[in-house]
Design brief:
The complex is a heterodimer. By secondary structure, chain A is an alpha/beta fold. Chain A has three domains: 147 residues, FAS1 domain (Roll), CATH 2.30.180.10; 136 residues, Rossmann fold, CATH 3.40.50; 121 residues, Nitrogenase molybdenum iron protein domain (Rossmann fold). In chain A, 38% of the residues lie in helices and 20% in strands. In chain A, the strands form five sheets. Chain A has a seven-stranded mixed sheet. In chain A, a hairpin with a 2-residue loop joins strand 12 and strand 13. Chain B is an all-alpha fold. Chain B has a single domain, classed as ABC transporter involved in vitamin B12 uptake, BtuC (Orthogonal Bundle), CATH 1.10.3470.10. Chain B has 14 helices and no strands. The chains are: A alpha/beta, B mainly alpha. At the A-B interface, helix 15 of A face helix 3 and helix 7 of B.
Chain lengths: 431, 350
């Protein structure tokens, strides 16, 4: 869609007008100069519709960095279609006072009418906020005009309008145009991640399973993905809803109301890193996210480094029981991965079902060294009292433990769960 | 007259044969249940393990197998098979009595709200954070209380019309189910195990549970048998039964109390196992006819056999994992039942 301006015409215009300007002092205004250049016609239109054009025809002292038609054409549609944004972008191209090219190259930053500064780089050729000057020092009665080859976007706008597209946990393509400021989290994992990276302020509503950190209690509770308080959700006016991938109906329902939805499905520790990184990126907390990930990795490798030195046959065998009696989990589950990382040999690791219900007698035969049960499942006493379990090593050696469910699922606190498991598996080393 | 006597004689012989056959079958199934499992233990080892349990004599046995095998046979398989037998018997005999009492082939032992009452009790125990040993106790208490309530609600002028009994049973069942759902809704994670418990199963069998259930079944089954004349008469309708000198109201009361205790105990130790109490009496009826004198003992044994067999399947079919026994009872029991039903239809012409 680029307009091809006949080169001959361009040269004629340039030599004639520049000459006119310089020779014997300027006698044209910035507006006149703009008017006479077809390659700046789009800027004229834009300034006119923003109500800014007239000031360049009046008396004053301005410097206008004029993006060419080519530059304006390649401007992101999101900015071009929003008049308020366009006005900010245009005023970002105006400097108060007359700046010649040489004066510009002596400064590091330029204060703009919009309020934010433009960075200047002089290494190699002159670059103003990333744009090159294609025609410089057009002196006019009310200031100076420089033609540049790119539109300058204020950093605040660039940070807000991230236009970030990714595939979410439900396999949907999600585009985040603007950094979300009001997030409803219907997934405890995401709630914890957002607070961990310091974006807790943006969380305006949570589901009933989001109970950590304590601040969550002050946020409106919207039930859960399967029994969602839709009225409350709409009232909160979120610009992003984060939800577990398996609540398909809720995802569709929220989407239909024009609210951006992002599904998460963290199934492994590395998925958690990805989730932290992703939420960091779209919420504008990249650095914090990297810090959280780095801290997790450091603490995890402290454990895995030790475990790596233990031969597999010397590692303790583990029976892990979920909320239902005799129901365990295999290696493909999140907790299964944690058990392995902590150096335990999960006796149900190779089961076909992700959450197999095991036979009591088989568990007795496997004779696990350690039994870990979810805190809201069977009690430790109940497990010890099971018929025929008295001889099982874990029971005989008093190594039956209850673990809090939050510590062994997909959230940043999994590190605490991992450390807890490692202590139970290798008490002599990690105590 | 000789023909009639010959007929009764042949009926008696047939019934005797059926009962002897069922008892032998029960033994065979129980032995099978003890022999098979995810851990393969040879029959001779199992025999040795049993031998070892006999005081004094057993001391001479040399143990050549892992210690865990003894636990598996004595503390896992044996109580499980025994509990399966007792629960199967209890559910089948109660179902049989309920179908007779209500003159309704759709009646099950849970018809008066025993299952949802029991579930409510269990959920309450978990919700109150009580120790695990209270769960069966609460289940039993609320199961029996529900029947008591249903009975009291239905009583008008010292009479309890069976229709009213049935309807108030269904109503109270729904009410308790709603209460359980409500508790599940508000305390979901903690009560997850209740959902599992409600599916029913014998995975948590212990000698304690056998010890509690055994006396109840041993007392209840003969009492049900004693009532078979009354149940037969009730099949003719309440007025006709009264004419035959049956005390209809007190019979109802006794049967309800017996069912409440028997099924309450079954629910308490094994959760809500469906299908057995509903279908087993029908299967027994296909073999021995509607006379409760033979129907009740036959149901007792078919129930015991059926639950041991299905539970053995449930714990071996995807070893070392287990399926809920309720899936097996329906998956294998229903086609078998339908097959018998069709056979009878062909034979009887209806």
């Amino acid at each position: 869609m680029k307009k091809i301006v006949p080169i001959g015409l361009l040269i004629v215009l340039l030599t004639g007008l520049v000459g006119g300007c310089i020779g014997g002092g300027p006698d044209t205004t910035i507006a006149d100069e703009l008017e006479e250049r077809p390659s700046l016609s789009m800027l004229v239109d834009a300034l006119t519709s923003a109500g800014l054009y007239d000031i360049f025809g009046e008396e004053g002292d301005y410097t206008l960095l004029a993006p060419s038609n080519d530059a304006l054409e390649s401007l992101d549609e999101r900015y071009a279609s929003d008049p308020a944004l366009l006005e900010q972008i245009l005023t970002y191209h105006v400097l108060e006072g007359s700046y010649s090219a040489s004066k510009i190259s002596q400064s590091q930053t330029l204060a703009t009418l919009q309020g934010e500064d433009i960075e200047v780089k002089t290494t190699g050729s002159l670059s103003i906020g990333g744009a090159s000057v294609t025609e410089q020092d057009i002196e006019c009665t009310n200031g100076t005009l420089h033609v540049i080859d790119a539109v300058l976007v204020p950093p605040s706008i660039e940070e807000t309008y991230i236009d970030y597209t990714f595939e979410d946990g439900a396999g949907r393509e999600v585009t985040i145009e603007k950094v979300p400021e009001r997030v409803v989290s219907l997934a405890s994992s995401a709630t914890e991640v957002m607070f961990a990276i310091g974006a807790g302020e943006k969380v305006v509503g949570v589901d009933k399973y989001s109970t950590y950190p304590e601040e969550v209690a002050s946020r409106p509770n919207l039930g859960s993905g399967s029994s969602l308080d839709m009225e409350k959700l709409i009232e909160l006016e979120p610009d992003l809803v984060v939800i577990w991938y398996f609540y398909g109906d809720a995802i569709e329902n929220i989407e239909q109301r024009g609210i951006n939805v992002m599904a998460i499905n963290p199934a492994s520790v590395s998925d958690i890193y990805d989730e932290i990184e992703l939420l960091g990126t779209i919420l504008g907390f990249e650095e914090n996210a990297q810090d959280v990930i780095g801290d997790m990795q450091a603490r995890i490798s402290e454990i895995t480094d030790y475990v790596d030195t233990i031969p597999v046959e010397d590692r303790p065998t583990v029976f892990y029981e979920t909320s239902q009696p005799f129901k365990s989990l295999n290696a493909d589950t999140f907790t299964g991965e944690l058990i392995e990382m902590a150096g335990g040999i999960n006796i149900a690791a190779d089961e076909e079902s992700r959450y197999p219900v095991l036979s009591s007698e088989w568990i007795i035969q496997e004779d696990p060294d350690v039994i870990v049960v979810l805190s809201y499942g069977a009690s430790v006493e109940e497990i010890k009292a099971r018929s025929g379990w008295g001889q099982v090593s874990a029971v005989a050696n008093d190594r039956v433990y209850a673990v809090e469910s939050d510590l062994v699922t997909s959230n940043p606190r999994l590190v605490l769960g991992l450390e807890q498991l490692a202590k139970w598996f290798y008490p002599e080393y990690f105590e | 007259m000789q023909d009639i006597e010959a007929y009764f004689h042949s009926v008696r012989m047939y019934r005797l044969t059926v009962m002897v056959g069922l008892i032998l079958f029960l033994f065979a199934v129980a032995i099978l249940g003890i022999m098979v499992g995810p851990v393969s233990i040879s029959p001779s080892t199992i025999l040795h393990i049993f031998w070892m349990q006999i005081p004094h004599v057993g001391d001479s046995v040399m143990q050549t197998w892992p210690h865990s095998y003894t636990s598996i046979v004595m503390d896992v398989r044996l109580p499980r098979v025994l509990l399966g037998m007792l629960v199967g018997m209890g559910l089948a005999v109660s179902g049989c009595a309920m179908q007779g009492l209500f003159r309704n082939p759709m009646a099950s032992p849970y018809v008066c709200g025993l299952s949802s009452g029991g579930a409510f009790g269990a959920a309450l125990a978990v919700n109150l954070g009580l120790a695990y040993i209270f769960l069966p106790f609460f289940a039993f208490l609320f199961a029996t209380l529900t029947v008591f309530f249903v009975y009291m609600i239905s009583r008008v002028n010292n009479k309890v019309p069976t229709e009213t009994l049935l309807l108030s049973g269904i109503a109270l069942s729904s009410f308790f189910s709603a209460l359980v759902s409500l508790m599940l809704y508000f305390a979901d994670q903690q009560l997850e195990r209740i959902v599992f418990w409600m599916m029913g199963g014998l995975w948590a069998s212990t000698w304690d549970k056998v010890a509690v259930t055994l006396p109840l079944i041993v007392v209840a089954v003969p009492l049900f048998y004693v009532l078979s004349r009354e149940l037969n008469a009730m099949l003719l309708g309440e007025e006709n039964a009264t004419d035959l000198g049956i005390k209809v109201e007190s019979t109802k009361r006794i049967i309800l109390v017996l069912t409440a205790f028997t099924v309450g105990a079954c629910v308490a130790v094994s959760g809500v196992i469906g299908f057995v109490g509903l279908i087993i009496p029908h299967i027994a009826r296909i073999f021995v006819g509607p006379d409760h004198k033979i129907l009740i003992p036959a149901s007792v044994f078919v129930g015991g056999i059926f639950l041991i067999l299905t539970d053995t399947l449930a714990r071996t079919i995807i070893m070392p994992a287990e399926l809920p026994v309720g899936i097996i009872t329906s998956l294998f029991g229903v086609p078998f039942f339908l097959y018998l039903l069709r056979k009878r239809k062909e034979r009887m012409g209806w």
